[in-house]
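Raw record, unedited: Methylated-DNA--protein-cysteine methyltransferase
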Amino acid sequence: MRSSVVIETIIGKIVITEENHTITNVDLYRDAVIENFFQKETPLLKKAVKQLEDYFKGTLKEFDLPLAPNGTKFQQSVWRALQDIPYGETKSYGEVARSIGNPKAARAVGMANNRNPIAIFIPCHRVIGVNGKLVGYGGGIDIKEILLGLEKSVK
């Protein structure tokens, strides 16, 4: 059974979804109005909300949640590599490609990053351009900047 909860954060509304006792989606809605949305808070969603709140307060640097993102084998490998990027640090798309043993796959890493269904918990915001510039983030570059700024200020 799927359950979801909407929370308000410093970057806007976030919807966290659980299915089969794992987190399957974290969606950023910024200032969108979410109407007719059925919420059911479960013990796992309460834990996820608490961890996300602590992350935004700067008191949590590593999430401890069962995650189950749906994607291809390649996407899964990228998403696992993203979880290895330490809090407050960044890697380029090329560095992530090399870390999964596919050094020529920087563009494919970018596409997998773009399709990450579990934002923040799988920290795709920590991936930057080879020149150090903030590029490509589904939630918007301004949100990526806020998340990286938060992590740098607490580190």
